[in-house]
Amino acid sequence: MPLDLISATAFVCERMLVEKDDVLSAIRLVDLFYVTEFQIREGKPVPPQPFLGQSLAQAFVSMSLVVNLKAHPGYQASHSLILRIINPAGEEKNINEAPIQADFAAKIPEVPSGFTLIAQLNIQPKVMGNYIVRVLLDGEEVCKAWFGILKHPREEESVH
After folding, report:
1. Would you give the end-to-end CA distance of the chain in angstroms?
2. Which domain holds residue 34?
3. Is the pLDDT of residue 46 over 80?
């Protein structure tokens, strides 16, 4: 049976909670992140450095990526899911090393079957700007998520 998605959603947020009743809660739907700008030393980008009082881990951008796919009621099958990221320079690469098995199933037969993925992303930006995460199911793009990484406004203030 070919896959006919009725909904395909991808977004980023600060974190996801899985409640006791298996209901998901997205915390702080944010898609714009601020970091200190990288510097060039000896022709190579130096990763963002933390501000005074900020830990090195905070120089990374951490977020949860949520992918939710829904098919018509009764649909049950397995598919191959790949996540790809495009950085502001247009460079694209896989996020996951191996395809993820996306098993479509429903606990209640009358409701759409689905697959949900929650992935923790830890990005150390080498380029400021717009990032796009492409979600591919069996090699075909089904949805995208956008987030931006920009120079921290406090850096702008210190220049003036």
Report:
1. 62
2. 5-159
3. no
